[in-house]
Amino acid sequence: MSIFLGIDVGGSGIKGAPVDLETGELVGDRLRIPTPAKSTPANVAAVVKEIIEAFEPVIGDAPVGLTIPAPVVHGVVTFIANLDQKWTGVNADKYFEEKLGRRISLVNDADAAGLAEVHFGAAKGNDGLVILTTLGTGIGSAIIHRGVLIPNAELGHLELDGHDAESRAASSIKDKEDLSYKTWATERLQPYYSHVEMLFSPDLFVVGGGVSKDWDKFGPLLKLNTPIVPATMRNRAGIVGAALFAKDSVEHPDPLVEHAV
Ligand code: BGC
In this structure, are residues 79 and 71 in contact, taking their beta carbons and an 8 Å threshold? Predict the structure, then answer.
């Protein structure tokens, strides 16, 4: 069995569980701890430590995968939209390794969800170009070509009608502006996905994020040439993707990541 611990850092909760990467199933129950109100690297590291300690007997000294809602370039968080600004510029892999005394691999949250969907979910077996978007507080994106992730695509921040796309089309905006599913789908999501489709000509769009459970209310309203389907990994996606990333960091280490341990 190939078991790695995946931890998903979100705006409201930090969730972790060991994952059996042969099946994509969680090994036992996941542990969820609320994200500290001040979501600084130090406060998040304290929660991550607690989760690692809870699962240490199952995972031994294997590296741990950790998602973050930000681009992570060779271990460094280059900017952050929806967590504490103290993250910007932090060499996060190194920082967490120093604090926790073990190998940690940080990965963008949407990249993790994309990996999970391609390995075990809605895009399993797709040999073309898959673009996954997550609709939540922001818009996350993952580009995966023939099973290989092209990391750190920030398609949620494309400019659309003079605005940052996520400030118009994220599901948090639907809630904030109290838009109906129909208005949100036709006026916000439609121009967004048409634009991404024009730029990338993907073979498949996968839509994740909590709102994908309500797919029937907005998905069928989208008119695109590209097939578009809801994600199937649901709230496991981040955890499973983080675990996949941890395994990949062992098998294909990034020579440009600076490690501390
Ligand atoms: C961030 C992305 C992240 C997405 C979803 C965006 O604001 O820039 O890195 O994937 O939100 O959390």
Answer: yes
Region for 7 from its dihedrals, namely left if φ exceeds 0, alpha if ψ lies in -120 to 50, beta otherwise: beta
Please write the tens of the pLDDT for every residue from 167-201.
999 999 999 999 999 999 999 999 999 999 999 99
Would you state the structure tokens that stand for residue 30, as one six-digit string?
A: 């996941």
What's the gap in Å between 140 CA and the centre of ligand 1? 4
Sign of CA dihedral 200, 201, 206, 209: positive
Q: Which ligand 1 atom is at minimum distance from the Cα of 70? A: 9
156 lines ligand 1 (CB under 6 A): yes
Task: Please give the model's pTM, rounded to 2 decimal places.
Answer: 0.97
Measure CA 131 to chain center. Answer: 13
